[in-house]
Amino acid sequence: MQNDWDGFRNELDNESLGSYDNYANNNIASYESANSEDFDDDDWSNYPDGFEDNGWLNYSTETVENSLISNQKYKKKNKKRGCLTAIIVFFAIIFTLLAMWGAFYAVIRYIDYRQDAQEKATYEVLPFPVVTLDDEDLAGNFYYNLLETDEKRTVYKEIAQGLKDKDDSILLHFNDEQLAYAIFIYVTNDYPEIFWGGEEVMIEKRGENYPYLLLRLKFANDTETIEKREEEVEMAATEILSGISPDASNYDKALYVYETVVKTVDYERGVPDSQNMYSAIVNKVSVCAGYAKMTQYLLKRLGIQCIYVTGISAGEAHAWNIVKVDDKYYHMDTTWGDPVFASTEGGESAIPEGYVNYDYFCVNDEQISRNHVVDISYPFPACTSLEANFYVVNGMYFEEYDREIILNMMNNRVTSKKNPTVVKFPTTEIYEAHREEIINDLVQKAANTLMNFYGMHEVNYIYFEDSEACETVVYWDYGN
Fold first, then answer.
1. Are the C-beta atoms of 423 and 405 separated by less than 8 Å?
2. What are all long-range contacts of 228-232, with beta carbons under 8 Å and residues at least 24 apart?
3. Could you read off the pLDDT of 171-205 as tens digits, one per residue?
4. What per-residue confidence (pLDDT) applies to 389?
5. Residue of 199, 195, 185 whose CA lies nearest to 236
6. Contacts 24+ apart (CB under 8 A), 447-454
7. S-S: 342 plus which of 83, 294, 357, 464, CB 3.0-4.6 Å?
8. pLDDT at 87 over 80
9. C-alpha to C-alpha distance for 211 and 83, rounded to whole angstroms
């Protein structure tokens, strides 16, 4: 019987085992009492059948087993109840956190709403430029017409209006700083008359929900000085333009401006205002930017479209123009039309006073590309015609070599006291094949014509040979 107890107890945990020992001892005591002398047969009737002969022990074992099974079921029920409680608590916490987050989010949204309303109210009263320019005013502006959206064109107008109003702080309906600066350059390229455009430019992005830009400019002069300089520019331009009839052809107007700029402006580095036209048109000294902007301004005043062009020439940044003459576009470089030295029979010599190099008046893309590289950032109009080229118009451009025609042209020019006399070809091959004959034969014959026609005892002249331009240029001294 003790072995049965041991086997059964090994299957129980310590807690159950303790309970079992107490229970078993109590029942064994009862069993021993039942076998005592005072326990008669009638007393067995109170117990189930078969309780005799160790039936008490069997009965006790079964009872203990049932009790333990019932205890385990109770524990399982308690465990299930514990899991359910944990789940309920977990979801209660989640719902509480969600409710707290919802309340927090509502507060944040309310704050954002208040801030948005306040920012909107501030935005609506910002002093943006009051634009008076319209598309008709801007129709001839090359860079303006490159802008493909209304938003960008609005920014262009706001910058142009602000500059015209001489504002050094301009608010813009825009939020792209880099593009805004590019549009600022567009404006200054289209408006040479805005010569105070700003030596320093700074763009700040402002606003969160209603973004805008603040364009800050540092002018070289105060407003009073700028207005005084405007008057000086107007006086100089009026005087220059009085020399050309408003009824002149577009070719004559373009040629007049080209010659005037070349003859009146001297090239000099490091002068004040060299990057705007004030230095050229008023002070008469400038660099390429001043030449090009003065050219552009005068031609605009004469009603001729003129584009400010940037690129590279002689290994340096350079500026010149593209001009529209009778519906065709041409390159025009007044800086390169103002030469310094030339080759003469006696070697290097100063260019005659008043000399103009027409190699850069109304030339096509092929000719300008020999020593200019156009900035490909901009889609400049193609220049394919030579119809308004100075040498073509004056019969000095020859598609092929014809000795008699060239000599006849030379004689006509010297008898008319015209300068220069140029023999120009389209290719280097034609030029090189006849260069020596032109200098040693045709020029000499033209000199004899000049001497005989005016009864001169001698004739002086200088000539330039330019293989790159495929031309020979002769400048005659008429003794005037």
1. no
2. 229/195, 229/196, 229/278, 229/282, 232/278, 232/282
3. 999 999 999 999 999 999 999 999 997 678 999 98
4. 98
5. 195
6. 447/414, 449/410, 449/411, 449/414, 449/415, 450/414, 450/415, 450/476, 450/478, 453/414, 453/415, 454/478
7. 464
8. yes
9. 55
Opening angle at CA 78, ends 77 and 81, nearest 5: 90
Angle at 324 between CA 321 and CA 325, to 5 degrees: 125
Q: Please determine, for residue 351, whether its predicted confidence score (pLDDT) is greater than 90.
A: no
Question: CATH second-level architecture of 222-381?
Answer: Roll (3.10)
State the first-to-last Cα distance of the chain, in angstroms, to the nearest integer: 156
Over the range 431-444, which residues count as b (16 or more CB within 10 Å of their CB) and which as e? beebbeebbeebbe
**Sequence letter at residue 450:** L
The number of beta carbons lying within 10 Å of the beta carbon of residue 141 is: 22
Give the amino acid at 112. D
Inter-residue contact 319 to 289 (CB < 8 Å): yes
Q: How many residues in total does the chain contain?
A: 480
Strands 266-267 and 285-286, sheet pairing = parallel
Q: Strand pairing of 316-325 and 169-172?
A: unpaired
Distance CA 200, CA 220 (A): 9
Kindly tell me if the per-residue pLDDT of 142 is higher than 90. Answer: yes
418 DSSP assignment: -
- Distances from the Cα of 37 to the Cα of 33, 51, 334, angstroms: 9, 17, 148
* Extents of the domains making up the chain: 2-103, 135-220, 222-381, 394-480
Cis peptide before 192 (omega within 30 of 0): no
